[in-house]
Amino acid sequence: MAGEDRRYFDEIEVGEEYVSPGRTVTEADIVIFAGLSGDYNVLHTDAEFMKSSIFGERIAHGLLGLAIQSGLLTRGMRPFATIAFLGLRWKFKGPIKIGDTITVRAKVMDKRETSKKDRGIITLQRQVLNQKGEVVQEGETDLMVERRSS
User: Fold this and answer.
1) d(CA 116, CA 119)
2) Per residue in 61-83, is it b (16+ CB within 10 Å) or e — as a string?
3) 3-state SS of the chain?
4) Residues 60-95: pLDDT tens digits?
5) Domains parsed from the chain with CATH numbers
């Protein structure tokens, strides 16, 4: 990706908001993620068992939802000149079911300089919503973002 397509620390403002396009979570997503992660918990893999659960059907892995939202958000915004993903504080508030269409809402909550003049830290608040507008996951992520060279 060309450097001019990315947004640098200096260009990002606290309060900016982004909304991603939607993405429908499929059975294939869940099966592939189970294989990739090794997490074959019955919540995700046993349709008969899950019929009698509080969810009534299989649900996506929470970490699958977290991974999807990460990529999905980049489709709703001009990408930052990110150097590193530093951390997250995250809550799983509700299930993501097969066939749910999720979107991500994000807002720049904070930006702070570091001791190194070529970078800064951006804190993004993120919410993952299903097609009913219910928040199924939310949290904050910290990103190290490159500054424009002076």
Assistant:
1) 6
2) bbebbbebbeebbeeebeebbbb
3) CCHHHCECHHHCCCCCEEECCCEECCHHHHHHHHHHHCCCCHHHHCHHHHHCCCCCCCECCHHHHHHHHHHHHHCCCCCECEEEEEEEEEEECCCCECCCEEEEEEEEEEEEECCCCCEEEEEEEEEEECCCCCEEEEEEEEEEEECCCC
4) 999 999 999 999 998 878 899 999 999 999 999 999
5) 3-146 (3.10.129.10)
